[in-house]
Amino acid sequence: MNEAEPELSDAEVIARVLDGETDAFALLVRRHQRRILRLGYGFFRNSHEAEDFVQDVFLKAWAGLSGFRGKAAFSTWLTRIAYNTGINAKRVSGRYEALDYEPEDDRSLSPEDAHLRKEAGRILRSAMAALPEKYAVCLDLFFFEGLPYAEISQITGYPVNTIKSHVFRAKQELRTSLAPALALPSGALSGGGIE
């Protein structure tokens, strides 16, 4: 694909790939690999396994691309593949653990900020690890991925009202569990990201 071409939609890129322009698939990988990597970190908490997961997901997407019908957005379809791949892997090795921040290079942070981020992440991971897995997955996709309930439903297979209930209950449980960890009254967390 020519870099000077205008931005193509995922559907246009997929059409090109299916028409034999296989190099165009790399554009889909570049667009969506960050989301899939974040999901991989949520499943594996290990960069090597998360990177292998990303490769596995994109190989599955490549193999199944001719079956993509466009009923949902490509990103939803791809995230569904990733979710199913991760859930199947975790059935063997353990539970899903929601990711509390972007997997990024912390070297740009001051030592104090890096320490605070690490400590906040530890507290949040501990609280989220105590959540039922179905709550943690829905909460992660809703808050950290910013997905709407309908898209989470397409990914997980849960009905929209069930997802709303899982997110609501997860927020309640987090509010309760984080208040003592942060030595704050439980009402002090209202207005924040877990309200």
The overall strand count is 0
Rg for CA atoms: 19 Å
Helical run tally: 8
Flag low-confidence runs: 100-105, 185-195
> What name is given to the CATH topology of the largest domain?
Arc Repressor Mutant, subunit A
Structure description:
The protein is mostly helical. It has 2 domains: 1-94, RNA polymerase sigma factor, region 2, helix turn helix motif (Rna Polymerase Sigma Factor, Chain: A), CATH 1.10.1740.10; 99-195, Arc Repressor Mutant, subunit A, CATH 1.10.10. The protein has 8 helices and no strands. The longest helix has 22 residues, at 160-181. It starts with 9 loop residues before the first helix and ends in a 14-residue tail after the last helix.
Topology:
Layout: H1 10-18, H2 25-44, H3 47-64, H4 74-93, H5 111-129, H6 133-144, H7 149-156, H8 160-181
Keywords:
2 domains; disordered C terminus; 195 residues; globular; Rna Polymerase Sigma Factor, Chain: A; mainly alpha; Arc Repressor Mutant, subunit A
A few lines on this structure:
This protein is mainly α and 195 residues long. The chain contains eight helices and no strands.
